[in-house]
Amino acid sequence: MEPAEEQQAARDVFVAGRDLALVAEAGTGKTSTLTLMGAATSKRGLYVAFNRSIADEATRKFGRNVECRTAHSLAFRAVGRDYQDRLNASARIPARETARLLGIPRDLEVGSQRITVNHQARLVMGMVRKFCYSTDQQVTARHAEWINGLDSSGQEYVARHLLRYAQQAWDDICSTTGKLRFEHDHYMKLWALGRPVLAADFVLLDEAQDTNPVLEEVFLTQNAQRICVGDPAQQIYGWRSARDVMTGFPAEQLHLTRSFRFGPKIAHVANRWLHHADSEMQLTGCSPHAGQVEKLSDADAVLCRGNGDAMQEVLAFLEAGVPVALAGGGNALLGIAKAARELQAGRRTSHRELFLFADWGEVQDYVEHDTAGQDLRAIVQLIDAHGPDKIEQAVNRLSDEDHAQVVVSTAHKAKGREWASVRIAGGFNAPSVNDDGVQNPLSTAEARLIYVAVSRARQSLDTEGVTWIDEYEQAAARADLVPTPREMINLSLTGQLWYESSPISQFMTEHLPLSQNVVRDYLGRIASLPHPIQPVHVRYPNWSALGHAIDYRLRLSFGSGLGLAVTHGVLALGADIPLRGEPAGARPSLYEAGRELLKTIDTHLATPGFLPEDEIVRLCFVAGFFEDIMRTGEIRRYSMLADTTPDTRLADLTAAVPSYVLDDIKRQLHLAGEPLAPFRALPTANKICGPVFTGSADIGGADADFVLDGLLLDCMSAKNPRKLGRDEIYQLAGYLLLDYDDALGINQVGLYLSRQGGLITWRATDFLKLLGSTLALPDLRAAFRQHLQSAATSAPDN
Question: Which of 429, 453, 476 represents a domain boundary (last residue)?
Answer without folding.
Answer: 476
